[in-house]
Amino acid sequence: MLRLPQFEVVAPESVADVVTALQRPGARVIAGGTDILPNLKHHLGTPQHPAELPPVLVSLSRVTALRGVALDEAAGVLRIGAGVTLSQLSEHPEVQRRFPSLSQSAGAVASPPIRNMGTIGGNVNLDTRCRYVNQTHFWREALGGGCLKSEGNVCHVVPGGRNCVAAMSSDNVPVLISLDATIVQAGPEGVRELPIEEFYKADGLAHTNAKPGEVTTELRVPLPKGPRRSHYIKWSVRKSIDFPLVSVALRFDLGEDEATVAAVKVVVGVLGSKPRTLSKLDDVVGKKFGDPAVARMVSDAAYAQCKPLENVPYEAAYRRDMIRVYTRRAIEALAASAE
Amino acid sequence: MSPAAIMLSMTVNGEPVQVAAPPHWTLLEVLRYRLDLIGSKQGCDKGDCGACTVQIDGVPQLACLTLAIHAEGRAVTTVEGLGLLAGGVHPLQDAFDRHTAAQCGFCTPGILLSAEALLRKRGREVSRAEVCEALAGNLCRCTGYTKIIDAVVDASRVMAGANTQEAGRGE
Ligand SMILES: Cc1cc2nc3c(=O)[nH]c(=O)nc-3n(C[C@H](O)[C@H](O)[C@H](O)COP(=O)(O)OP(=O)(O)OC[C@H]3O[C@@H](n4cnc5c(N)ncnc54)[C@H](O)[C@@H]3O)c2cc1C
Ligand code: SF4
Ligand code: FES
Ligand code: FES
Question: Is residue B41 part of a domain?
C-alpha cells in the first residue's frame, strides 16, 4: 500500500480558471494522474523543489475544451488538445493516416488501461526518470538519503556531478520533435506557442521551459507537404508497461518520385533530460531511400552522437549498441515496406 | 490541518452512491475502505500490475492511479458488478471457471474487467492476439496466461453464439 500525501484538489472548468488556480503557492496540474500520482506516492514533489509536496492539485478533468483533435487545413496543422488520452490519439484516423510514427508512439506508452487515462499534455510534461529516484522513500533512504532530485545532495549516476541527468522517457516527445510540432502554453502572461524542441532543457530537476503557472493547452503538428516515411522505435524490457530504454523517432521526407530523400530528422530519447536531434545527416539527402547506405549512415550517426548514461536499467554501453541496431533495422524495414 | 473531506456522488455497479472521503484518496481506497468492495485488488498501488483495474464509464482504468474525485458523476464497474452486466453470472466468469483460469485469483478481477471491455467493443469472437493486447496491462504470476487467453476466447465464442441465437429468435 502506497499512501498519497495530503493535498487539496480543485477542478475548474475553463483554461482561464486553471491558470488562476495555479497562482496558489505550490499548486500543480493533474491530468490523467499516471505520472504525478506514482511520484507523489513515492514522496517526490515538484521538479523545482523535489522534497516539497504540493498542497493543491489543479485537475484538468472538467476542462472539456482541451479534449479535441482537429484537422486545421487552413493553418496546415493537426491540433491536439492537451487533454486527449493516449488511446484516443493512437487510434485517431487522421493521426494514423498522416502521422504513423505518432500513432505508434502513443500506442506504445505503458499499458492499455494507462493509455485510457494518461493524456498527451501529461506525456509532454512527464517528469524525468532515474533508477535512483523513481523508488519508494524507504528505498532511497537505504541508498544513503536520496539524491539531487529527491532528499539528498549527490548524484549516483555521475559521481561528484552537480547536475541531474535523469532521463526524458516520454515516448511521444522524440516523435513530436521529429515532426516539428509546436506546443501551446497558457499562463498568467497570456498564451504563447513555441517549437516543442525548444521546450526541453538538459536539467533533470527542471527539464522544461514552462514558466511558473503555465498549463499546456495544445500540440500542433504541421501536415506533411509531400510523401513521407516515419517510424517510432521503442525498445524496453517487456513489450508492455515498461518505459523505453532506447527510443528513436525517424522521419524521412521524400521527393515527388517517392524515392529520393529530400529531408531527414532523427530524434533520440532516454539519454539525458533533453532528447537529442541528430546532426550531420546532410549526406543522406539526395540518396534513394531504399539505398542500404541510408540505414547505415543514419544508424552510425546515432551511435556516434548518442551516449546513454547509467540512469535507467541496462548497461549504457549495451543501450548505445542497441540504438544503432534498432535504428538500422527500422530503416531497412521501412524501405522494404515502401517498395 | 488536513484538507476537508469531500462528498462524492457516483454510480457504482449500477447503484447511485454518495460517499465522503479525504481529497487525496484514490478511487481504489474509496472502493475498498469506504464501500467494502474488496474485489478490486491493491497490488503494486502504482500502475504496474493491473490488479486494481475497474471500468469508468465502460473504459478499463487503474483505480490505484485515479483520484476518487475524478470518479465524481461517473459510472464505476468493479468485479462485484460484472455479473450484473449479464444478469447473473457473466459468460467470462463461467469460462474462467471451466478453464481453471484463476489460480490464486489476485489478478482475476482486473483481468475480467479488461476482458469484458474488449468483448463489448468487438461484439464478436476475438483472436488470441487481440486478447493478449487487451490484457497487456494485467500481470498474472500464477497461470502463465494460457488458460486466461483460452477462457476469454471461449467466452467471446459463447457470447457470439448467444447473439446469433437471439438474432435468430428475432426473425
Ligand atoms: C506503470 C507505468 C508505465 C508507464 N510507461 C510509460 C511509457 O512507456 N512511456 C511514457 O511515455 N510514459 C509512461 N508512463 C507515464 C505516464 O503514464 C504517461 O507519460 C502519461 O502520458 C502521463 O499523462 P497523465 O495525463 O497521466 O499525466 P499526469 O500524471 O497527470 O501529469 C504528469 C506531469 O505533467 C504535468 N501536466 C499534466 N498535464 C499538463 C498540462 N496540460 N499542462 C502542464 N502540465 C501538465 C503534471 O503536473 C505532472 O507534472 C508510465 C506510467 C506508469 C504508471
Ligand atoms: S541523475 Fe543523479 S541526481 Fe538525477 S535523479 Fe539520477 S541519481 Fe538523482
Ligand atoms: S494496484 Fe493498480 S496497477 Fe497495481
Ligand atoms: S491467478 Fe494468481 S496472479 Fe493470476
Answer: yes
